[in-house]
Write a structure and sequence with these properties.
single chain, alpha+beta, Alpha-Beta Plaits, 3-stranded mixed sheet, 4 helices, 51% helix, rod-shaped
């Protein structure tokens, strides 16, 4: 979209400069540079979150934590990442004092439809 806007502005600036408005070409160049800078900033912000392993959805983190820690288990580590539109992957490490396996925790998270891929590590604290 930014490329299309800048291209239209450049063509408009050149056409108006040919009709005598020489300043319009320079103005179109400056405004086009601002449009590209704004687009670049948004791209850097979005990709920076991915590269720095930031959780894409804090609300989902709270839901996962509430579902896991509901029976007294402890969520030791949680990583969420975006797989695609409406799909999240999660890696979690759970510390429990009960003899539970990963299928128990998969069932507890089953109501969260956005979690498309789960990797669960269960650590028994009594062992």
């Amino acid at each position: 979209m930014a490329d299309a806007v800048v291209s239209v502005m450049a063509i408009t600036g050149l056409v108006l400069a040919r009709t005598g408005w020489l300043w319009m070409d320079r103005l179109a160049g400056v405004v086009g540079a601002l449009v590209i800078a704004n687009w670049s900033f948004g791209l850097l912000r979005d990709t920076g979150r991915i590269l720095l392993d930031m959780n894409p959805d804090q609300h989902m983190c709270a839901k996962v934590r509430a579902a896991i820690e509901g029976d007294g288990d402890e969520l030791a580590d949680l990583h969420l990442w975006r797989l695609g539109p409406g799909h999240l992957g999660a890696v979690l490490s759970v510390i429990t004092g009960e003899p539970r396996d990963c299928m128990y925790y998969r069932a507890r998270l089953g109501h969260l439809k956005n979690l498309s891929h789960l990797t669960i590590e269960v650590v028994n604290s009594t062992a």
